[in-house]
Structure formats: C-alpha cells, structure tokens
Amino acid sequence: MSYKSPDIHTEKASYHHGDLRNQLLSAGLEIIKTQGINALSLRKLAEKVGVSRTAPYHHFKNKNELLCAIAAFGFQVWTDRLKTIQDKSNISEEQRFREFAQSYVDFAVENPDLYDLMFGQPIWKESHNTGALKKDAYPAFQYQRDFIKSWQDQGILPEGFSDLRLSQVIWSTLHGIARLVIDGIYLQTNDSKQVAEMCDCAVKLFLIESQSQK
Amino acid sequence: MSYKSPDIHTEKASYHHGDLRNQLLSAGLEIIKTQGINALSLRKLAEKVGVSRTAPYHHFKNKNELLCAIAAFGFQVWTDRLKTIQDKSNISEEQRFREFAQSYVDFAVENPDLYDLMFGQPIWKESHNTGALKKDAYPAFQYQRDFIKSWQDQGILPEGFSDLRLSQVIWSTLHGIARLVIDGIYLQTNDSKQVAEMCDCAVKLFLIESQSQK
DNA sequence: AACCTATCTTGACACTGTCAAAATAGATCA
DNA sequence: TGATCTATTTTGACAGTGTCAAGATAGGTT
Fold first, then answer.
1. B176-212 per-residue burial string, b: 16 or more CB within 10 A, e: under 16
2. Which domains are seen in chain B, by residue range?
3. A114-172 confidence digits (pLDDT tens)
4. Which residues bind DNA (chains A, B) (predicted)?
C-alpha cells in the first residue's frame, strides 16, 4: 500500500524535481503511518523529500488539499478491498456480510491514522476542495450501499427500511466501532479479541437468520 | 449550560485574579460553541479573559489538560440528560429507549464542537492526564450500560449478548451516526429529518418488538 | 514587620501554515 | 541555434501557535 509514480524513472525525473507531487503523497503517507497524522507538517514533509518549505504549494493549494489527496488514496485502497470481498466466490452471503463488517473495522485498526484522516473533520468540513476527495470517497459509499441492497434482496438483511437508511445505520455502527477503538475510548486498540466480538455482535444483530437467538 | 463560579463574587475575587480557572473554562467553552474547537488557542483564550499568555499554565499543566476539563464538563451535562431520561415516568420502556437514542444524537448535533472535543482523539490518546477526564466520562458510559442491561432484562432488547457487548454496539451505532452527521460526511448536519430517520431505523433494528416487521 | 508561596507577567524559543518576490531551468518558437 | 515563455523551486518574511525560564506581585502566615 504505497504511492507509485506513473513513470518508471521514479528516482530522478524530467522536470525540476520530477514527480514531486507523488513523492510528497508517498512521504506524507509514510509519516502518517509511522508517526501519526499530527506529526505531519508541510515543512517536515518538504525536508524529508529534500525540497524547500514552499515547494509543495505548487502542487497543492494548501495543506488541506494535500491531506485530501492522501485521504483519497485511502478510499481507493478501501474500495479495492471491497472489490476483493465482492469477488469472493464459494462463500455464503452471510459470510460475506461478516467479512465485510470485520474488514471494515480491521482496515481502520490496521491504518488508524489514515482512517482518521479519511473521516476526520478538517477534510470534510472545508467545503473548498473536497470535490476531488468525494470523487474517490463516494464510490466506496456506493459500494457499501449496493452490498446492503443486495443482501436485503437476498433476504438476509431486514427489508423494512430503505437500502439508504439501512446502509447508513450499518455503516454508522461499523464507523462507530472503528472510531471508539482507534480513538482508545473505553477499550484498547490492541484488544483484538474484544474488537472481533463487537463485530460479531453487530453482525448478529443485523442478520435476520440469527434473530431467533434473540 | 455554562460554567458557574463556586462563589457569588464572580466579577472580582479574592486572589490575584480570582477564579481564573473557572473563567478560563467558561470562556473556553464559549469559544468552542461559537467559533469551533479549532479556534480555541490558549493565547486568544487568555486575552479574552484579560490575562497574560502564560497565566493559564498555573491552573492547567498544558492545553490538553484544559481541554480535558472542558470535555469533562460535557460529560457531566450528558450524564444529567441521561438522568432526566431515566427519571421520566409514565413512559413505556420502548419509548425511553427511543428517547435515549434520539437524545444521544441530538446532544451531538446541538453541541458538535463540544462532542468533538469529548470524543476527539487528542484527549483520549494522551495517557497523561486523562484520569480526571475518565472520572467524569465513565459514569456516562456506565449509565448507558445500565440502561441497556435493564432493557435486556425487561425483554425489549435481545438477550443473546452480554450487556457489555450490546451496549458497546448500540453506543457505537449512535456514536457513528453522530460522527457522520456532525463531520458532514455523506449527509448534512442541518438535515434533521434524515437524522431522525436514521435514529428511528437504528432503534427499530435493535428493539425486539419491531423485528416482526422485518 | 518579615517571609512564604501561589499567582501572574515578560521574554524567549521552536515550530507551524502561507504569502510575495526573486531565481532557476525545461519547453517552445524564431 | 538562440530568445523567450512558463512551470517550478527557493529565499525572505509574517502572524500565529504551545510552552519554558526567570522575574515581579501581592495575599496569607508567622
């Protein structure tokens, strides 16, 4: 999971610096993963890439736009994972739903700071440049909604609600679990057993089949 | 919903400045409510209260500790609202559950920046001084858990799970809805009709009685 | 009256995001 | 080829941030 330059000559490229934009994104993502989102400053990032403080401003309007670009990458990764889940054959639909739910929380727990960036407020609240971000984020949302709708059609998720509402609520549940876990509220990130149990509990609550156990 | 000084002489008090600590908390809360959490800087806060930049450091170890104190106040307010819900008589338990869920999201939507502070990472991730914060936060969590347990005992919430797990998942759902809404992800804060519908959907999913509709 | 100690201020440091103006160098066209 | 254009990068600067160290102040205590 890392940025790749579009060309082969990643090291030294044609223009002044070459693919500064890509390297900024790549280095930014690495800082986020290793030192956390709060440790990412434009200046340190520029230094890491070996360029002056203001060079990034010729590739991103401001810091927020750079963060949006990294977050967009995160959404691409998550969308890919959704595709993988969709493409799995010889698997029951209940199992696919379980995997979807568990994968969602896993993705957040494995990339807490990236997830934090993807769903942190600064990015979404600034109404300026979120257009590019939404372009990558909405497919993921749509994917999830399509999943839910298909499970409703197949009768393993309740049909008393619109697919929009149900997908919003299920998403909220997974998002809420992810947030509480990675923010260290009430429970700890490293307690993977408890996290898995929470996912399992959520899945069972939604699945129609296991309602008899209630 | 505002800080009150313990004494009557709020204006000018005994010591150097008087109840600087309380005024810092009060002014900080006001900034958060009016200008948002990101607009709150120690320096502007000090200026607002009419004191030098470093004066707050004699009442709070650092900025995080001040934020924790404000967040703790938020938890007190929320706990009070939980009590109000608990004390309501001539109301069905299903209705009490509905009200609990709706109130949770309402509280977040009405005080987005305070909620953001209460459940934002910086506060919870710093392991130093969260002791005082937990003292005010955990009663709220416990309250919620007791609610869930009582509803399980009364047979309106599924009993196939431990009250801990179920309360964690229900809390996650409400927290997730709240976060998605106030962070402006996918839906807008001001679309109160949609938010209410999401709450209603979540409530129906959890309540045993409405399972037949599924 | 002398001291103590909590409180507050001034000065300073390192860090941040961002703008304006100058410098550089690849690309384009004569 | 050489001149010019334009995208890119740099240097300098500004306002703002959290926080520390050292000094000033003033109420409470002996």
1. bbbbbbbbbbbbeeeeeeebebbbbbbbbbbbbeebe
2. 1-59 (1.10.10), 63-213 (1.10.357.10)
3. 999 999 877 787 665 567 788 899 999 999 999 999 999 999 999 999 999 999 999 99
4. 41-60
